[in-house]
């Protein structure tokens, strides 16, 4: 059981953690995958190659150590990570494996500092945090299993429709193989999809935003083809090899980023494939006859403008202002990077809720712009692709 002495000891190790940096979590992952290679079918191995997962885990460990006396400061992060864990179907027994390798990593990297007292304190601290996650994830699993159309573990879905939405984004409509209803979700949430790419060694699980309003019968995800140094293993497999009629496994919808029904105005701000959760929100807001909605979108050019026609139609039908920015092209309302200052007079700065989705750098820029315009941070909601990132 975690006590005050344990807390003081954990806090005393913060300088040690900071001196080790992400190298600590890199060692942890190497150790864990060496001893438990079956976990490679759960973790995103591309994030291991890029180092993003190691950095994210280190930041989470450091944040826990620094806030161990004030866990309320971590409530948002815990909720976000718990939702992500359920989309990977993480179970209680996985925490035992992770805890073992975390303790052994600390022992191996700092043998002199890792005394029996430090081991006892970190073990107690880890078990305490693990139980928070186990309990919360257990609640989420139970809710989804008992709800109409809900299920536990993986469920087989057929790709019933595949549609190109822009140069790099393709939508997939997924219908349950068993023909039974599917669980509703909150607009903005995502779903976990599990596939076995022909170019990969392991099963791969990825999370993609649901890009249409709930209908009780099917799901739609819209996937960007990822290129560059670390070519997207799953996204390219879905684009190039998955066809209509193929079967994939899905885990129930999850995510703590979603439209929160309130009376105040709504502003949807996205870039690139960040438009996907916004489509579910737009369709839902239209059904509700929401009066005060503003849409802001940025991308490189017209060919990459995802859901351009659909967004324009719903905005026109509902008399909602919609603004676009193209970084490397003409034809949008504005050129260059998205700049909220250009339409500040049109925005509900005093009482609106702002929903953001896109690359981290884009969202950091928008958050700073909104703060500069006087928007309280509590009215800014965001979704981050990949490992949890603090904005």
UniProtKB/TrEMBL annotation:
Domain FAD-binding FR-type: 152-260
Binding site for NADP(+): 272-277
Catalytic activity: 2 nitric oxide + NADH + 2 O2 = 2 nitrate + NAD(+) + H(+); 2 nitric oxide + NADPH + 2 O2 = 2 nitrate + NADP(+) + H(+)
Record Pfam families: FAD_binding_6 (PF00970), Globin (PF00042), NAD_binding_1 (PF00175)
InterPro entries: Cbr1-like_FAD-bd_dom, FAD-bd_FR_type, Flavoprot_Pyr_Nucl_cyt_Rdtase, FNR_nucleotide-bd, Globin, Globin-like_sf, Globin/Proto, Hmp
Top-rank EC class of the record's enzyme: oxidoreductase
Function description: Is involved in NO detoxification in an aerobic process, termed nitric oxide dioxygenase (NOD) reaction that utilizes O(2) and NAD(P)H to convert NO to nitrate, which protects the bacterium from various noxious nitrogen compounds. Therefore, plays a central role in the inducible response to nitrosative stress.
Name recorded for this polypeptide: Flavohemoprotein
Annotated source species: Vibrio aquaticus
């Amino acid at each position: 059981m975690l006590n005050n002495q344990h807390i003081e000891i954990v806090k005393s190790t913060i300088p040690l953690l900071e001196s080790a940096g992400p190298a600590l979590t890199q060692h942890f992952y190497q150790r864990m995958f060496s001893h438990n290679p079956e976990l490679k079918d759960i973790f995103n191995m591309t994030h291991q190659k890029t180092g993003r997962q190691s950095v994210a885990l280190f930041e989470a460990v450091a944040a826990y150590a620094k806030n161990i006396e004030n866990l309320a400061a971590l409530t948002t992060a815990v909720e976000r990570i718990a939702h992500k864990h359920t989309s990977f179907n993480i179970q209680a027994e996985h925490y035992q494996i992770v805890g073992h390798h975390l303790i052994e990593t600390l022992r191996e990297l700092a043998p002199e500092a890792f005394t029996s007292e430090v081991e006892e304190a970190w073990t107690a601290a880890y078990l305490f945090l693990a139980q928070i996650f186990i309990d919360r994830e257990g609640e989420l699993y139970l809710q989804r299993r008992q709800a109409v159309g809900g299920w536990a573990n993986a469920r087989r879905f057929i790709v019933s429709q595949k549609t190109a939405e822009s140069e790099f984004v393709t939508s997939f409509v997924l219908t349950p193989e068993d023909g039974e209803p599917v669980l509703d979700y909150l607009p903005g949430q995502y779903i976990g999809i599990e596939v076995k790419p022909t170019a990969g060694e392991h099963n791969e699980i990825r999370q993609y935003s649901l890009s249409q309003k709930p209908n009780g019968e099917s799901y739609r995800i819209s996937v960007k083809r990822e290129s560059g140094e670390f070519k997207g293993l799953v996204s390219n497999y879905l684009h190039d090899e998955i066809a209509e009629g193929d079967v994939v496994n899905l885990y129930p919808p999850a995510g703590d980023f979603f439209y929160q029904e309130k009376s105040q105005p709504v502003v949807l701000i996205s870039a690139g494939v960040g438009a996907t959760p916004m489509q579910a929100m737009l369709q839902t807001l239209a059904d509700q006859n929401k009066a005060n909605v503003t849409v802001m979108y940025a991308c490189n050019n017209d060919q990459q403008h995802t859901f351009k026609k659909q967004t324009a139609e719903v905005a026109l039908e509902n008399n909602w202002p919609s603004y676009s920015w193209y970084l490397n092209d003409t034809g949008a309302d504005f050129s260059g990077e998205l700049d909220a200052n250009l339409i500040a007079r049109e925005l509900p700065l005093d009482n609106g809720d702002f929903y953001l989705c896109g690359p981290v750098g884009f969202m950091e820029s928008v958050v700073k712009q909104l703060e500069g315009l006087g928007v309280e941070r509590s009215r800014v909601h965001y979704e981050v692709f990949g490992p949890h990132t603090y904005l």
